[in-house]
Structures are given as C-alpha cells and as structure tokens.
Write a structure and sequence with these properties.
single chain, alpha+beta, Arc Repressor Mutant, subunit A, nine-stranded mixed β-sheet, three-stranded antiparallel β-sheet, 16 helices, 16 strands, about 20% strand, binds adenosine-5'-triphosphate, binds magnesium ion, EC 6.3.5.-, nucleotide-binding, ligase, ATP-binding, protein biosynthesis
C-alpha cells in the first residue's frame, strides 16, 4: 500500500505544533565491537569479503549449538548501568521468528520479556544547556541480521532481478535500547531526538563497546513518532522510520514525520501504523510495510541457551570499570579550560576534545592547546581535506612543538613548517629541527650581522625608529628573516635594533 500518492500535503512545522503535541520513541541499535559474534566464534569484522566471516552456528545448520559471548553480556551490563537501568538478576534469550533471507536461521535470537537491563533514564543536554530526561524502557541483547543488496533495485546491476546476501553481519552482537514514549518535547522534539541519539553514541564510544560509527551502521536509530491533539492526553498512532543512520537525519526525520502526520490528521485522515524509510536526498520518508502491534513473531524462550544469571559482585566489578559519563566530562573540561560556549562547541564539532585534554594534561596551557588544535591542525586538515583527528597528530607532538617555541629554539612560523614536515613523515619535531638545521638564529653574532645589514639597507626605517616610531621596526624584521631564512627570533631582532639605537625597549 503506497500512501504517498493520496496523502495530503504536510503542514508547516509551526502549524503542526500549534495544534498537536508530538510523542516520540527511539529504538537505537548498537553494534558491539567484540572480537567474535554473539553466539559463535566467527570473527566480528567490518568490510571483509562477503560471506567469509560465517560459520555453521551463524547459518543455523542442524546439530550446531550457540554459545553466549561473555564479553557481549558484560558490554550490555555496562551500557545498562551507564543508562541508569536496573540489571536483571536472571534473563533469557528468545527466538523472534520471521522469514526473510537476511537471517539464515529463520529467527533472530533476541530478548523479549526478560531484557538484561530495564527502567533507566538518560539526561541529555540541549543546545541551550537545558537538560531533558529521556526514560529508558529497556536495553536488550540480540544478534544482527545479514546484509541484503538488492542488485537491480539499488541500480548496481541494471535490470537485475535478484538480491545479494552477505552473512558476515549475521550474528554480530547488538544491543537495542528502547525509550519509553517521550512526551512534553513540543517544538524541541527534533532537537531532543538528535541530542538523545548523540548522547547514546557518546556513551557507547566512551564505554569502548562499539566503534560507534554511524555512517557504518554501528549505531542505527528507529524513530517512532505520533501526534496527539493538544490536551487530549491519548497517544496517536505511530509511524516508525527505520535505520536512520546520522544525527542530522534523526533530527530531520522527526521534523518531517511531525509535519506529515499533522497534514493527514488536519485533513481528517488517519495514520497508518507502518515502518517508513528515510530518504536523505529529499529529507522525507516513504512508506515501508504496515506493522501492527499484534505482529506475530511467535516469540518463545530460546531452548538452546541457558538463562543468564548476574550476581551483584559481577555487576559491581563492571560498574567500577565505567568511565566518567561523557556529559559530565564535557562540563568538567569546559570549566577547566575556560573556553567560551562557542569555543567549546567548535572543539566538539571538530572532534578534538580528547586531543586537547591530553595536550593540556601534558603541560600545555588550554589556550596553547586550543591555538594548535583549532588553529594550525584544523587549517592543515582542511587543506588536506581530512578531519582534524584523522591527521593522526599525537598530543605529544604538539607539546614538543610548543616546548621548542617556549625555549626560543624555533618561532611560530618555523613551528608551522615543522608540523608540515612531521605530517609528511619526517619524524619528531626536535629531530626535524636538528636534521633541517631550523633552530632560530639567536646567537648574537649571526643575528647581529643580519640586523646590521638590514639597518644599513633601510636608513629611512632606522630614522623613523630613532624618532620614536617603534612600530617601524616591523619593516626591518622582514629583511632579517630573509637573511636568516626565517629563523630569526623577532623579539631578539627588536631588542638588537633598540640596543643599537640606544632606545629603552
Ligand atoms: N504512540 C506512540 N508514539 C510514539 N512512540 C511510541 C508510541 N508508542 C510506542 N512508542 C515508542 O515506540 C518504540 C517501540 O519500540 P519497541 O521495540 O518496543 O517495539 P516495536 O517497534 O513494535 O518492535 P520492533 O523491535 O520489532 O521494531 C518505543 O520507543 C516506544 O516508546
Ligand atoms: Mg521498532
Ligand atoms: Mg524494537
């Protein structure tokens, strides 16, 4: 059933919010970065040749038995704790039956009525610093399905009438985090949606349990949206936009679905409960398949796996391993560094918080760390068309460069060159300075000679300086730099000039 042909036009966002109150719910799937799969010893690896990381358990061959990956369970417990959930004392896996070629077993091993973690919350920080609490219904363990490529449909092979299947992903450990319905978001619903998924991504990254790369599908979000008539208090019918895999897309999908539902409801229509697909190019969604709450997956407890029993000691050991929550860490660093909100946001956007933290921890001032990472490194990254973090510059390198400057051994300009040589593989900054003979000329002999030469060649400048126009010294620095191949210390040059003219600096 394709609704889009007959659907009324979406309302504007403002019109929609005047009349309706949005309700949202998110199912976020997190792919864990364990070495092996959830129930088999096949490697959990991204990007390998199709169907090379598959074994008999993943394929559900007769006579095989699954074994639970203990690391995946520990990751689930850690995530549950980080989401302020209760951890079940015992829980079970269940079979979710469906017939589709992405699962060779004809069921997905998941958890149903006994999730490992439940009843939590996450406080998410909005753009203006306000905190919005999202209640977590549960976080449960399951396995990923294989990847289908519809050869003809995706245009990869013109006219093809078949699909390609890659089972490398089948059995990869997943945690699905499900929120309770989120009410009271109002016009901030799209922003809250993005902030929530961002917060979840940051947490799984900080926990180190997932590569958390959304563009690779390590973190994927199903966004459920419905509207209720203001003051009505009864939830409307939801749509479920599947597998939205960027933060912006989550925001836009919620925005669009609110407008689309409002358009239908305002025209007297009713919402079909269905899954929908996000379309990045038009920033709209399209109809997927109808889905009722009574969808019968014929769940039943997985007979081939024992229940998981967690004891308090185990949970407390894992709790002790939790890192500082990302939101708290951000607040702490913003304060410690004394950056403005804008400066700090820029650091986050550039993905350089870890690097700056380490640079400061190694003894550079926050201002120096910022100058390097947000200035020079970002500029070079831009010129080389990569993300700043992807340049792979170590904080230790920046600390070393800064030390060379502070000791007066190189100036800023040379330091910038040294960075380029370093990126081109010439080694550590001090080695580059030594190899290339870049040390600042501050031994008085060579520098004084260069200054004398510049003064002799620019009598008009010297006259101005002598008359008290100290700024004019700047015109001498150029020629001195030229003479010393850029290795003069500008402060020293000034000092020598003033000295020669008998002026107090
Ligand atoms: N009326 C509603 N409007 C918006 N969100 C809703 C509404 N009712 C439920 N939700 C949210 O939708 C999500 C439903 O996810 P859940 O995993 O429980 O079930 P499902 O989508 O039916 O199943 P599946 O995991 O197979 O997709 C939850 O986040 C829930 O809070
Ligand atoms: Mg769902
Ligand atoms: Mg779900």
């Amino acid at each position: 059933m394709n609704q889009t042909l007959t659907e009324p036009a979406p309302l504007s966002f403002d019109e929609a919010l005047e009349r309706f109150e949005p309700v949202m719910g998110f199912e976020v799937h997190v792919e864990l970065n364990t070495k092996t799969k959830m129930f088999s010893s096949a490697p959990n690896a991204f990007g390998d040749e199709p169907n090379t990381n598959v074994n008999e358990v993943d394929l559900g061959l007769p006579g095989t038995l699954p074994v639970v990956n203990k690391t995946a369970v520990e990751y689930a417990i850690k995530l549950g704790l980080a989401l302020n959930c209760s951890i079940a004392e015992t829980c079970r896996f269940a079979r979710k039956q469906y017939f589709y070629p992405d699962t060779p077993k004809n069921w997905q091993t998941s958890q149903y009525d006994e999730p490992i973690a439940f009843d939590g919350y996450l406080d998410v920080e909005l753009d203006d610093g306000e905190i919005f609490r999202v209640e977590i219904e549960r976080a449960h363990m399951e396995e990923d399905a294989g990847k289908l490529t519809h050869a003809g449909g995706s245009g990869r092979i013109q006219g093809a009438d078949y699909s390609l299947v890659d089972y490398n992903r089948a059995g990869v450990p997943l945690i699905e985090i499900v929120t309770k319905p989120i009410t009271g978001a109002g016009e901030r619903a799209p922003e809250i949606a993005r902030a929530y998924v961002t917060a979840v991504r940051d947490i799984v990254k900080a926990l180190g349990i997932s590569d958390a790369r959304m563009e690779r599908g390590n973190v994927r979000c199903d966004a459920n949206v419905s509207l209720m008539e203001k003051g009505a208090g009864k939830f409307g019918t939801r749509s479920e936009t599947k597998n939205v895999n960027s933060l912006r897309a989550v925001e836009h999908a919620v925005h669009y679905e609110i407008r689309r539902h409002a358009g239908i409801l305002a025209a007297g229509g009713s919402i079909v409960q269905e899954t929908r697909h996000w379309k990045e190019d038009t920033r709209t969604t399209s109809s997927g398949r109808p889905k009722s709450d009574a969808d019968d997956y014929r769940y039943f407890p997985e007979p081939d796996l024992l229940p998981i029993v967690t004891d308090q000691e185990w949970i407390e050991r894992l709790r002790a391993e939790l890192p500082e929550p990302p939101a708290e860490r951000r607040r702490r660093l913003r304060e410690a560094w004394g950056y403005s909100d804008k400066e700090f946001r820029d650091v986050l956007a550039a993905g350089l918080m870890d690097q700056i933290e380490e640079t400061v921890a190694s003894g550079a001032s926050p201002a120096v760390a910022r100058k390097w990472w947000m200035g020079e490194i970002s500029r070079v990254a831009n010129a080389r068309e990569v993300e700043p973090a992807a340049l792979g510059v170590e904080p230790a390198t920046i600390v070393e460069l800064n030390k060379l400057i502070e000791e007066g051994r190189i100036n800023d300009k040379i330091a910038r060159q040294v960075l380029e040589y370093h990126l081109d593989g010439e080694g550590a900054p001090s080695k580059i300075v030594a190899d290339r003979g870049l040390e600042v000329v501050s031994d008085d002999g060579a520098l004084t000679a260069a200054v004398e030469k510049a003064m002799a060649e620019n009598p008009d400048v010297v006259e101005k300086v002598a008359a008290g126009k100290l700024k004019a010294i700047g015109a001498l620095i150029g020629p001195v730099m030229k003479e010393t191949r850029g290795q003069a210390d500008a402060g020293k040059v000034r000092e020598i000039v003033l000295n020669k003219l008998g002026i107090e600096g």
